[in-house]
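Section 3.1: Structural characterization of target chains.
Under the original work plan, the team committed to producing a structural model for every single-chain target entering the pipeline before any wet-lab resources were allocated. The record below documents one such target. The sequence was received from the expression subgroup and is listed exactly as submitted; it comprises 506 residues.
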Amino acid sequence: AAAPDVLVTDDAAVSRTHEASFLLIDDDPDTVFLSEVELQSGDCRLYVSTDRAQTWSSVEDTVDSPVETEKPPGADQSPETDPHSDCTLGSGSQNIRTELEQAPDGTLYYLFSGNHVDPAERSRSVMLARSGDDGASWERAVVDDGTESARDEVEVNFQAHMAIDPDNPELIYVMWRRSQGGDDPRPPTRPFMAVSEDGGVSFTDPSEMLDINPGFDGPRPIVVGGELFAFYRESAPRTEDDEPPEDTELFVTSSDDRGQTWREATLLASALDASEPIPHYDRDAGTFHVVFHDNRNGDLDVFHTSSPDGSEWTEAVRLNDDLLENNVGQYYPQISQSPSGRLDVAWYDYRTDLNPPPGGEYRTHGDDDVVDPGEPLGLGSNLGVQQSVFYTSSDDDGRTWTENIQVNDGRIDRTIGTWNNDYFVVVPVSIASWDDRVVVSWSDTRNGTSLSGTQDIYTAAVTRAEDDGWDVAQLLAIPAAALAGIGVTLLVVTAVLRSRKEVASI
C-alpha cells in the first residue's frame, strides 16, 4: 500500500522549478538523503529525513550555491571550483541529473554539473562534492572542467554517473556524456570518463570511452571484482523522412584496466525508442539486473532482464501490467534492491491520463515491412498530459513481479513545469528500498498553474504489510503536519509569468 505523498522541497518562490531528485539510504537505515536542483536559482540542494522519508528537512548548506553567497564556517569553497556556480540548465540547454553515493566509511558523494558563472562561457563541467559530516560541509573536485578549453565551440558535460569500487573505496569512476556546440560541423556527442584514486580528491584527465553516440544519458558504471562494467544506450542513426526509423540498441561492456580498453560489447536489447539501460548488481546472488523502456509493442513499456555475468541475458519481461498495445506510455524505470534481496522498480506512467494521445503508426519490432496505422507513441511524440508514478516488485530474482500499484495520490499535470513545454526536461523518478518499505521520489506540478509553472519534489512510501495495506501504527507515525498538508492547494500569484526557456533536448 502507498502512504500519502510528502512534499520535500520547502521553497516559497512562486516560479520555483525543482527537478532531478535522487534518493540514497544512509548507513544508518533510518536516514535518507535526497538531492535535487532548483532550476530558477541554480542551486543543487540536499534534503535529509531521519524517519525513513516520512518527513524531510533541507540541509543548511547546499552543495553548489552561487559564488557570491557567503559560505558558513567550515564549508570549503575551493577557488578552482568558483566559476562553476550555476546548476541550472545553462545556455547550452541540456538535461540535468544529480546522483548520490556513499563510501563504506560514511563519506557522502554528490555528483552534479555546474555551469560557468559567466553566461557568455556557456560551458558546463562535471563536479563531485564529498562530505564527511552528512552534508553540513563539502569539498569539491572538478571531474571535467569544460571552461579550460581552447576550443571555439561550447563544451557541455552532463548527465554523469559514478561507481565506487567496493573492494577499494578510494577508486571512483565517473562517466558522462559530452556535447559540443559552435560552428558546423559540430563534434558528435560522445561518452567520457575520469578516474579518482584518492577518494574523489582529484581525477585523471577525461578520456573518450567509446566512439558511439550515447543519446539521452551518460553510461552507468558498476564495479564487480575489480572489473569495470559500463551500461549505455547507442542512439539510432537518423533516417530520411520516407524511411522507417532504426532500432535503438542497449549495450554492456567491461574493462579490466580501469577503462583504458573495453571488451566487445554485449547487446541487451534492440527496439524503437529504447531508454538507457538502468543496471543494478545483486552482490549476494551475483546477478546483474537491468530495466529500461522501449516501444516494441507500439507504445512505451517497461522491461527487465538479468544476467549472471553480463554476457548472456534473459528474455526481457514486461513489467507494466496494463493492456498490451493500449497506446499508453510508461517512461524511464528505475530499480533498487532491499537488504533481503527484493527487487523494486518504479516509473512514470500515463495510464491514468484523462486526455490520452491519439493512436499512432509504428513499425512492428524486428520486421521492417510491417507497419500499423498511426504514429508511434514515443519519447518525443504523442506525449500524454496527466502522469502518475507506478511500482512493482519481485521476491524471486526477477522471475515474477507483483501487480502494479500507483505510488502517488494524484495525477501530475505535465503541461506545467519542465516536461512538455518550456524546457522539455525529462528526468526519471528515484527509488530506494528497505525490507519493509520502499520510497519513491518524483517531480510534481500540483502546486503550479500555467502561469507560475511551479514544480516541486514529492516522495511516497510503499509498505510491505501482509494484508497489502498500511499498519495502523505506521499511519499514526506520520506527523500531523504532514497529514494536514496533503491535498492543500498552494496559493500562487497568477501575475507572475515565467520567461520562456530554450527547448532542452533529453
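The CA atoms of residues 64 and 175 lie 20 Å apart.
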